[in-house]
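Chapter review. Work through the record for Acetylglutamate kinase before attempting the end-of-chapter questions.
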Amino acid sequence: MSYVVIKCGGSIVDSLPDSFYENLVAIQKEGAWKPVIVHGGGPSITNLLDQIDIPTQFVQGLRVTTNQVLEVVEMALSGSVNKQMVQQIAKAGGKAFGWSGVDGGFLKAKPASNVKALGFVGEIHEVETSYVEQLTNLGLIPVISPISMDVNGQKYNINADVAAASIAQALQARLCFISNISGIYNKNQNIVHEATREEIQDMISEKVIIGGMIPKVLSAIDALEKGVPEVAIVNGLEPNNLQQFLEGKAIGTRLYLGKEGMEYVESNR
Ligand SMILES: Nc1ncnc2c1ncn2[C@@H]1O[C@H](COP(=O)(O)OP(=O)(O)O)[C@@H](O)[C@H]1O
Ligand SMILES: CC(=O)N[C@@H](CCC(=O)OP(=O)(O)O)C(=O)O
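Structure tokens for Acetylglutamate kinase:
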């Protein structure tokens, strides 16, 4: 039995059809895969901040996070969005256990190293994988909010793509990003079905990949470099997206380190 980390983006979380959750529960009950959900919720955070007149600022797809913003991020993610997903899974006949990186020190955070002046934005340096093992052994589907804490008890806003990639690395799990687009668009606005690390880097330099797609592809590449066997970005509205991802079917954009890796899906099943 292998883990599959499914990252549900805030762009789609409110629109995921019942069939998405029903398929998820069916995959878990069938027993070949242990699904682990990591969710974002960027739009919910921005809505809450708007309501209290706090401006929103992103740098390279990451939210500039003051103390006040951090509180709102935690309310939105570990509160509303997390419990909404737990509820949807329950309605689909499954049992989900929602928690965040803060709880039990599940995700150990440190300040993000790649982009400066973001405030309390962090990255993960350790994952307590035994929690996932124990919960999944109990037949529960973990639903993880990415907010995390460092050794001194300081909380950090962790981009959900970054958290999902770290968790997938720690579990050596397949990683599926569920978003509101059917994959990565190239400069001609066509979906690319496969992309290598080099192609991704070019698309970032050429500003073809912008905003929230930047942390997604960078963490996807990082995950592949650290041994995650398969990563794809798929649309949450496409039917049977999870099943198709797990079967290695051509869905969304699959990411690879180099051209040679592109044979992986066909040749290793
Ligand atoms: N080259 C690209 N291809 C596809 N989407 C892109 C690209 N560059 C930027 N994006 C944007 O990235 C968004 C997905 O990232 P994000 O909004 O963070 O989604 P999520 O909440 O699902 O993580 C898309 O809706 C799109 O607007
Ligand atoms: C540091 C950082 O950017 N954190 C994200 C966390 C939520 C998230 O990642 O949500 P999506 O999946 O919808 O993008 C944020 O504050 O928006």
